[in-house]
Amino acid sequence: MTQRVAIVTGAARGIGAAVALRLAKDGNAVAVLDLDEGACEATVKTITEAGGKAVAIGADVSKSDQVAAAVERVVAELGAPTILVNNAGVLRDNLLFKMSEDDWDTVMSVHLKGSFLMSKAVQSHMVEAKYGRLVFLSSTSALGNRGQANYASAKAGLQGLAKTLAFELGKFGVTSNAIAPGFIETDMTAATAARVGIDFEEFKKATAASIPVQRTGTPEDIAAAASFFCSEENGFVSGQVLYVAGGPRN
Ligand code: NAP
């Protein structure tokens, strides 16, 4: 089987790191991209020590010049990328009346603009290869969530982007899908617990009680879904949103 080159954004930790490890285990060379290149080294080391191929790339996905330079480095160091997982994300939660313009712009820039810029930068390689796998990290918050007007809008927008690129790029052998996780145990949900002043273990326990499978999710739960969407054999599921949430939606 051909070794594909994958880029995973926000892959220094959390869901992105688990997706990077899984895609490497699946046989792909992986560009571990995050804001801080040094912070990517742990993910790269785990991959290379297991016999895989990976490089650390530092870039802010919301800056077009940094995105262009990052993709050029991936081409030079690993080869042309044909798998992209748009995972980088930030939270700036607040009720609407307290949400600042900066809270809105930051979330839109990283999630929506970042995914647009990254997808645009890799699409020419996918089109040339007549092969591609695009994955967007949406969220159950896309259905609406108190205190997340910015995040919910960005995550709903990513579903629209995934579906649109499925239409535009399908004829070039590219599939484009979104994963909408529910509560996943990462620094992001730990920060939410801290913000509302609840111990993380208590927060997870309380959340698990409302989830049909009675547990919170792990980054590996999301990596398993990403692995399917990014696989060679998935050439016919495109433009879909997969809720990975221990139940229908949360
Ligand atoms: P996380 O632990 O906070 O990790 C996010 C990563 O993205 C961090 O390494 C962060 O870098 C990086 N990042 C932030 N802004 C960036 C930028 N402009 N350019 C490049 N990298 C950037 O988050 P997570 O929980 O793993 O979530 C990953 C994705 O899944 C996000 O899109 C999130 O919205 C989505 N999601 C998460 C959950 C959940 O329950 N955890 C649920 C639904 C959806 P720094 O550390 O340097 O900031």
Keywords for this entry:
Rossmann fold; single chain; 8 helices; globular; alpha/beta
Describe the structure in brief.
Belongs to the short-chain dehydrogenases/reductases (SDR) family. By secondary structure, the chain is an alpha/beta fold.
Question: Can you offer a commentary on this structure?
Answer:
One of its GO terms (molecular function) is oxidoreductase activity, acting on the CH-OH group of donors, NAD or NADP as acceptor. This is SDR family oxidoreductase. It contains 8 helices and 7 strands; from the N terminus they run E-H-E-H-E-H-E-H-E-H-E-H-H-H-E. It has 250 residues and is an alpha/beta fold. The chain has one domain: Rossmann fold. A 7-stranded parallel sheet has the order 3-2-1-4-5-6-7, with helices on both faces. Helix 4 (101-129) runs parallel beside helix 5 (149-169). The longest helix is centred in the middle third of the chain and has 29 residues, at 101-129. The relative contact order is 0.14. It binds NADP nicotinamide-adenine-dinucleotide phosphate. NADP nicotinamide-adenine-dinucleotide phosphate (NAP) binds at residues 9-10, 12-16, 34-36, 60-62, 87-90, 110, 114, 137, 139, 181, 183-184, 186-189. NADP nicotinamide-adenine-dinucleotide phosphate (NAP) is lined by residues 9-10, 12-16, 34-36, 60-62, 87-90, 110, 114, 137, 139, 181, 183-184, 186-189.
